[in-house]
Write a structure and sequence with these properties.
Chain lengths: 733, 234, 81, 81
């Protein structure tokens, strides 16, 4: 053995010493590799775990919090929702199609491993600027086809998500996939190994050498060298996964299964040790019994391979033939590879001979835990300073509006979601292109609203506030569709946590999420951390993606964003302030990414959302749309583009015209309603202490906006619609 | 009157067809596993959308060898009704019940959106409630829906009035702009010579409930039901 | 023994994928490429058998499954060894 | 001049498509097929040029666009004429 064995598996000297202490001897190569993958950041969360205690993770609805394959939240009628988000950033940077596809495959397995039927997928994507960068377009296009390729084939609708472009993602694109499943309370399964003598079964695709080292690949910075060396790329097989999904759900309807877990990062090593650890048991498996597709694989290769579309089961002794029959019916491999013991050890054999033996808990739970140093980065104070007086005045606001609509960050995402089958299973009530997607729950009169949100520029300039806003915006997206926020899964994408400024961003973000979640009583039930998203040149902006679901308990109360009828009154709930810092307007029109992030008053936000819920409940409004990037002007444009109507707006304000139109003040919702309901709306606004502005009314064909009596915007809706839709197709060719 | 929805490994719109027939139209419908040989009790066989056998090699190429397909061919040859939607259409061309082939969309992308199609032939059991020239909005969701047939084959289709649906503009114009995938002559659906086998790329089962935004697709299912109830055309 | 089957689009059938690759090569500066056509290569590992027998079998497989002769043509080679 | 590029999956990378075809051949009774791998064949029509020059260009095209060498390997032939 070389004299620094820890280096070959990405561990430190101290970590190696800890292994020596646990084992009381030197680990052999297999054992050392198992520690290497399990104690990598990706599997052990060693740099992040210490902060998770801030998250609220339980309330009366939480049936399963973080720590399992997915979180589960009750929706009544004996039904519950399983949800989880997962990143596949590094693999997608190297092979966009397969990287994204296998990311989707992995998150789906996490959901059905709980016994839930996956009903919807979402994704949150970040790339460098695409206009002048063919490689970025290749990545964007490949990732989108990969997500579609997998989700469409397996037949789970991809109903929503987000895409943003910023140069900080040039070397480190982000691909986060989220899956939602439905489950009945009494059918929840967990990844646990219990009952001495019960059998360990392997099902699904055979094991190859692919993806070896994936977990550690995800735990280093991406450089030329790692990209070439670690070709931890796999080819996804959505067809296999569809069979695996159906077979597992059929099996989980029986009572043969004690525990089930998918083989994801760190493959068998992770599944075996985690299941044994959760069950306070041990496990012995023989690698020679594992179905393989390559000859001459070493035990270590079998143990850490990340081949896709595989699951590990612990089943009751004696049920093996019945289990095999189910998998045979679906044309899938299944093999008994070991059994549950009570010695707390994970014992690996090859043809009956012991080749490795370590305490299961030491792999799964006893990874070192670091509380990294943190320090506020220097850029923060510098970049927050913005003097509005120095901003060049713009004269033609029509032109500015079109420039804004043409921003890759604000234009329609149709080019993306038209490549996703968002309707399969015929439950998609609100399709992509709105604030949140809405999916009907079979056999009930209920629906789930789902969204992902994060403005990473906000998080860069003020992570604490940016993270609060991400939660608030997600919740607002849910509320405007008629839902009540239920739970969060968070996808935390950051740079290298060993650098104090990055860790500060991480810590601030977690605190921000936690504060908002507590205020809104929305628990965090699952999540994922992806660190080391940086290249030698730069780190990504902190990107804590919030995946949120909400419950609509009456299908009759689903609300949509588009205006419905000519002559309706348009009202803006909330108030517009001089908050142009960190905005898309500053970036697109003035080329600046700085300034103070808009303020967020969580109490006010909560009242606004409660107001919106009541307005929908009482059927007082006909449409509702959240305001976010691009402010009022963009929100109006989006409503119009979807409705083939126009709007006549007239307002008075002390703000500069451009700032009024594009301010990104938080806690605002655009609604439309019948004239007859305006008084009732006003009354409710007063009751909830929410300021509001009657903006104008819906008309035919055009958008006209008067500010302080001056006509500043006067455009045809058709032109807005065409522009919004043509931006991505034009760039992508 | 009994419907059978065939389930191949990799089918995923089986459930959607089933739901329309049982929940919306309250008809008697079964899932039929791909290795079933006896399908005599069914009046209508539906080959649903999805990715049978992963659509590996070519869409529908492997599914067409399933055990059930021999019976489906016999069922069709007896004059009983068969409808293939999306992947089902691809299987019907691979097995030879319908002419032509479905190849990669000309923009090389999967396309999911609702498009207008025009009813070209309202004398089939599937379209008898439609007007000729009627425009209905039906979702498509496919990566390989680009209908190809050689000139001779096309002449035959036209001569025998086998073109049932074409992609069109909202006003019903058949033009290049309204062709989503590059199909020859904007063809979206065809039938066999006898008219009892229909293949179409658009998904009527996705457009059969107002809650989901559109019920234009119901007219097809209702036509089938009326046809079976009467046993013949009016 | 091994065999390789080549499945390509018949002449006259449009090949959007080939065209897209041609365009991409163009924009990378490879102007000298005039046309691109894309097909499939299917490598088969077979039990050893008589070459003639193999030919018959492979032809059958192509006709039945590997190619769709409405739009594709095929050819194959048998590699001994 | 013409060239043909063959792009196939590297050894060890799983080939779902090949596996599915293998199973299908199996169930059609072709038990003598042990393994199937599927790749792409890319036919290029090029301006006439020096063979050596062509080799360099094609190699470049493969590395840059035609194959993703993290999971695929390639080879090519140049056919004069
Ligand atoms: N990657 C994606 N996949 C699917 N849908 C997407 C994706 N990106 C954006 N969308 C959809 O486009 C719409 C607009 O997204 P976004 O601009 O993030 O909205 P908002 O500002 O209201 O959060 C949403 O319906 C969203 O689900
Ligand atoms: Mg968003």
């Amino acid at each position: 053995m070389n004299n620094k064995p820890w280096e070959s598996v990405g561990l430190t000297r101290e970590e190696y010493d800890k292994i020596l202490e646990i084992l009381g001897r030197e680990p052999n190569n297999l054992e050392l590799n198992m520690y290497g993958v399990m104690w990598s950041e990706h599997c052990s969360y060693k740099n992040s775990r210490a902060l998770f205690k801030h998250f609220p993770t339980s309330n009366e609805r939480v049936l399963q919090g973080p720590g399992e394959n997915a979180g589960i939240i009750d929706i009544g009628d004996n039904k519950a929702i399983a949800m989880k988000i997962e990143s596949h950033n590094h693999p997608s940077a190297v092979e966009p199609y397969q990287g994204a596809a296998t990311g989707v495959g992995g998150i789906i397995r996490d959901i059905f491993a709980m016994g839930a039927r996956p009903i919807a997928l979402l994704n949150s994507l970040r790339f460098g600027e695409i206009e002048d960068d063919a490689h970025m377009r290749y990545l964007f296009s490949g990732v989108v086809s990969g997500i579609g390729g997998y989700g469409n084939c397996i037949g789970i609708p991809t109903v929503g998500g987000e895409v943003y472009f910023n140069k900080c993602y040039k070397g480190n694109p982000l691909v986060n996939a989220m899956c939602i499943g439905v489950i009945e309370h009494d059918k929840i399964h967990r990844g646990t190994a219990a009952g001495v003598g019960n059998l360990v079964m392997y099902v699904g695709a055979s094991t190859g050498r692919d993806g070896i080292g994936g977990a550690s690949f995800a735990s280093v910075e991406l450089t030329e060298e790692t990209a070439v060396k670690k070709s931890a790329v796999q080819v996804g097989d959505p067809f296999m996964e569809k069979l695996l999904l159906e077979a597992c759900l059929e099996l989980l309807d029986t009572d043969y299964v004690v525990g089930i877990q998918d083989l994801g990062a760190a493959g068998l090593t992770s599944a075996c040790s985690e299941m044994a650890s959760r069950g306070n048991s041990g496990m012995v498996i023989d690698v020679s019994l594992v179905p393989r597709r390559e000859e001459g694989m070493l035990p270590v290769e079998v143990m850490i391979s990340e081949s896709q579309e595989r699951m590990l089961l612990v089943i009751k002794k004696g049920a093996e033939e019945k289990v095999k029959k189910i998998f045979d019916k679906w044309g899938l491999h299944s093999a008994v590879i070991g059994k549950v013991t009570d010695d707390g050890m994970l014992t690996i054999m090859e043809n009956g001979k012991i080749v490795g033996r370590v305490p299961a808990k030491s792999l799964a739970d006893e990874a070192p835990k670091y509380y990294r140093e943190y320090e506020k980065p220097e850029y923060i104070d510098k970049k927050r300073a913005l003097s509005i007086d120095k901003l060049k005045e713009v004269n033609d606001l029509n032109e500015v509006l079109f420039k804004m609509i043409s921003s890759t960050n604000l234009c329609s995402r149709e080019w993306v979601y038209n490549q996703y089958d968002y309707q399969v299973r015929t439950n998609t009530v609100i399709t992509p292109g709105s604030d949140a997607a809405v999916i009907r729950i079979d056999e009930t009169n209920k629906a789930i609203a789902a969204t992902t949100d994060c403005n990473s520029r906000y998080c860069y300039l003020n992570p604490r506030r940016g993270a609060r806003i991400a939660v608030a915006e997600a919740a607002r997206n849910i509320v405007v569709t008629g839902g009540k926020p239920l739970a969060i899964t968070d996808g935390l994408n950051f740079g290298n946590p060993e650098k104090p400024d990055r860790f500060w961003q991480f810590r601030e973000s977690i605190l921000g999420i936690s504060e908002a979640c507590r205020k809104f009583n929305i628990p965090v039930v699952s999540g994922n951390v992806s660190f080391y998203n940086e290249t030698p040149e730069n780190a990504i902006y902190p990107t804590p993606i919030i995946g949120m679901i909400g419950l609509i308990d009456d299908l009759d109360k689903v609300m949509t964003m588009e205006f419905k009828e000519e002559g309706d009154i348009i009202v803006l709930l909330g108030s517009t302030k001089e908050e142009i810092g960190a905005s898309e307007y500053l970036k697109v029109i003035h080329g600046l990414e700085l300034g103070e992030v808009p303020e967020i008053d969580l109490d006010l936000e909560k009242r606004l959302q409660d107001l919106c819920v009541e307005l929908i409940d009482k059927k007082l409004i006909k449409s509702a749309h959240d305001l976010s990037e691009g402010g009022l002007a963009l929100a109006l444009s989006e409503c119009l583009a979807k409705s083939n109507l126009g709007a006549e707006i007239s307002v008075d304000t002390d703000l500069r015209e451009d700032i009024y139109l594009f301010s990104e003040s938080q806690s605002r919702i655009l609604v439309s309603l019948d004239t007859n309901n305006v008084d009732k709306l006003k009354e409710l606004c007063n009751r909830y202490e929410i300021p509001f502005t009657v903006l104008g009314r819906t008309i035919k064909d055009k958008l006209s906006i008067k500010i302080n009596g001056d006509l500043v915007i006067d455009v045809k809706v058709e032109d807005i619609t065409d522009k919004l839709r043509s931006v991505l197709p034009c760039i992508m060719g | 009157m009994k419907f059978g929805v065939v389930v191949f490994p990799g089918s995923n719109c089986d459930i959607d067809c089933y739901k329309v027939l049982s929940n919306v139209l309250k008809k008697d419908v079964d899932y039929v596993w791909h290795d079933t040989e006896n399908i005599e009790k069914y009046d209508v066989i539906i080959l649903p959308g999805g990715f049978s056998y992963g659509d590996y090699l070519r869409c529908g190429a492997i599914a067409r060898f399933s055990k059930i397909m021999d019976s489906v061919v016999k069922h069709a040859n007896k004059g009983k009704l068969v409808i293939g939607i999306c992947n089902g259409f691809q299987i019907l061309t691979e097995v030879g019940l319908l002419p032509g082939a479905l190849i990669r969309n000309n923009n090389l992308k999967f396309i999911c959106k609702t498009v207008p199609i025009r009813v070209e032939n309202n004398t089939t059991p599937f379209t008898l409630n439609c007007e000729k020239g009627q425009v209905i909005n039906i979702p498509i969701a496919h990566g390989e829906g680009n209908y190809f047939i050689d000139e001779e084959g096309l002449a035959q289709l036209e001569k025998n009035n086998q073109i049932v649906f074409r992609y069109c503009s909202e006003e019903g114009l058949i033009d290049e702009k309204s062709n989503p995938n590059g199909s020859v002559k904007n063809i979206a659906g065809i039938c066999n010579k006898a008219g009892n086998v229909l293949g179409m790329m658009p998904h009527p089962e996705r457009a059969s409930e107002l809650l989901l935004g559109n019920e234009d697709g119901l007219i097809l299912f209702k036509s089938i039901i009326d046809y079976l109830e009467r046993g013949h055309f009016e | 023994m091994k065999a390789v089957v080549y499945v390509t689009l018949k002449k006259g059938i449009s090949d959007p994928q080939g065209n897209a690759v041609k365009e991409a090569l163009d924009s990378l500066g490879y102007r000298e490429v005039n046309k691109v056509r894309i097909g499939k290569i299917i490598e088969l590992e077979l039990e050893d058998m008589d070459k003639e027998e193999a030919e018959i079998k492979i032809k059958e497989m192509c006709e039945k499954l590997l190619a769709n002769t409405v739009m594709e043509k095929y050819s194959f080679e048998i590699l001994e060894g």
